[in-house]
Amino acid sequence: MKQLILKEIDELIYGSLGIIIFISFFIGGVVAIQTALNITSPLIPRNLIGFATRQSVILEFAPTFTSIIMAGKVGSYITSSIGTMRVTEQIDALEIMGVNSLNYLVFPKIIAMLFYPFVIAIAMYVGIFGGWVAGVFGGFSSSADFVEGLQLDFIPFHITYSFIKSIVFALLIATIPSFHGYYMKGGALEVGKASTTSFVWTSVVIIIVNYVLTQLLLG
């Protein structure tokens, strides 16, 4: 089980860092640029760019946007890998050997996804750094103004809120695709359909749960 968990951490968490860092950097940059371009009044301080970038990245873009991307990347992988085992009767073989197939296939994925907040923390840092790069090197804000905006009215609970969301999203990303893969019926064509269905349902549930958690934790 230890080897299975380490393998899943490598594939689900470590293997996703590249795309998460790439997307977070440019999302942070886009938020900073759009905020700067919408500040038309000279009375509005330039540190608002850093403030808006921090709030947008920490509260929404890092935990939620990243989770929907992970639902596509990780969720499709989980559904297709388990679904292929179902189609090729490998799961039936595990059952015959006396192995609890559900525990053997799904439990390591759930444990691996508990490291997901680590990915979200990196996404937050890289997103804010991307905003700083875009704001300062794009000529929209000075470095001092941007950093001042990052420190303005900071509420530590917002970080806790994001990590609570990311833990819940991690469990959704691990369980919903596993369900669609484990209980699918048919052949190779149905594996592709199950992957698509699992991505759609995971994204829908993430968005609904995001609304509920925001209402409960911040409302």
Could you provide a short overview of the structure?
By secondary structure, this protein is mostly helical.
Give an overview of the whole structure.
The protein has nine helices and no strands. It is mostly helical. The longest helix is centred in the N-terminal third of the chain and has 40 residues, at about 50-85. The relative contact order is 0.18. This is ABC transporter permease. One of its GO terms (molecular function) is phospholipid transporter activity. Keywords: Membrane, Transmembrane, Transmembrane helix. It comes from Arenibacter certesii.
Mean pLDDT reading: 86
Question: DSSP helix count?
Answer: 9
What is the string of helix and strand elements?
A: HHHHHHHHH
How many DSSP E strands?
Answer: 0
Secondary-structure-based class equals mainly alpha
Proportion in β-strands: under 5%
Q: Major sheet: size, sense and barrel closure?
A: none
Describe the structure using short key phrases:
219 residues; mainly alpha; 9 helices; 0% strand; elongated; phospholipid transporter activity
What is the fold's blueprint, element by element?
Blueprint (H helix, E strand, L loop, with lengths): L1 H12 L3 H22 L9 H40 L2 H7 L4 H13 L2 H22 L5 H9 L5 H26 L5 H30 L2
Helix pairs in contact: 1-5, 2-3, 2-6, 3-6, 3-7, 3-8, 3-9, 5-8, 6-8, 8-9
